[in-house]
Amino acid sequence: MKTDFHTLVIGAGIAGLVAAYRLHRAGRAVLLIESGDRAGGIIRSQDAEGFLLERGPNSFRGTHELLDLIDEVGLAGDLVAADPRAPAYVYAGGALHAVPMSPPALIKTRLLSTAGKLRLLREPFVRPRREPGEESVASFVRRRLGPEVLERLVAPFVSGIYAGDPGQLSVQASFARLAALEVEGGSLLRGAWRAARRARAAGQTPARSLRPYRLCSFRGGLEQLPRALAAALGPSLLTGARVTRLSADGHFALTILHQGAEHTHSAANLIVATPAAAAAALLRGLAPEVADLVAPIPYVGLASVPLAYRVGQVARRLDGFGFLAPRGEGLRALGSVWNSSLFPGRAPDGWALLTSFVGGATDPEAVALGDEELARIVHSDLRRALGVEGEPRRLPVTRWERAIPQYPLGHAARVAQIEAALGSRSGLHLVGNYLRGVSLGDCVLQAARAAEKCAASS
Fold it and tell me: What is the pTM of this model?
């Protein structure tokens, strides 16, 4: 059986769902194919003994594209946002310190020494880098802002986003806007000032402020978004469908095995929205030069360890987003999210739900540890950081052996090569968090742009 579509999309994670949804809304015949039994990829929310757990990402930062999408699919009423004034903490020197978010807070903070603060203030006078090629996040921050800012602020922040090693990640790929400020202004401060001036001159006033949407979720958990997108797609989404053959001869031809039968579908456009390794395997016979570029992109493993405590077991008030832990401070966990303090309905009354993360680039062996050992490690860390007493209520641990893609030195150049190679393959598009940003908002933006290109084609 052969069916013709305008666009075929492989992979029903958030990027594939958004790409298919945008094409569907544009009136294009689209088919989204997912090998698993559900849409949403790593976004998965679960009720466990009355606690609402996130088995993948725990929240998202609001972007204009993402918030517009939420409005479109009818989830605005279920959107919940953490108090943007709530602090995030860093564990250093045996105590939690609020991350300074204003000049007065920076002056008062004990997270940085006086010497560290004075070094930070020198940033506008630091000469810009002239060497070609990419630079590590660690080198960039140490050079422009000083070693204390790197160790106490940026390194834990990098752990929170990428679970990565700032000494290995490319600043041009991981924090492209930050690197661009130095190129454009000669310093971060001057670059930011010039960018703001250009935006004002161009009349680029956003329709809404993003400040209230610093950290968001939904009343029923993050999985509400992929569920809503899947419902909007209806029969245009096939789950439990495995690709067995992919070829191109003018059009893309895709053979899938679904419910015991083979079906062949064709389309003028193909969007591959799988993780990097799966994308490389799919494209090996179709676009080997693209597959060779995508296959080596590394990922790190991560374990998500939720523990619950009676409120009276926690010595301090949980008044913020959670904390991050720099390496070398005696904690093995990368950090902890205080779920029940951020959003409603995460824990029964009288309970606190805390989700901690172990592993990443600096602790790759942690993912292989057993549930009991991971719970013991996290409980010990929380006892030191928060003064918890007694035993926790243990909840299901989630492991991702390939959790977050890494953008090592050379990644920005690799992505440029991928895009150049795709330019010679009419109708073929890649989207995913292994290219230009790992956040939910990044994936939504990538997917929308790919869908727009496909929709514009005949």
Answer: 0.95
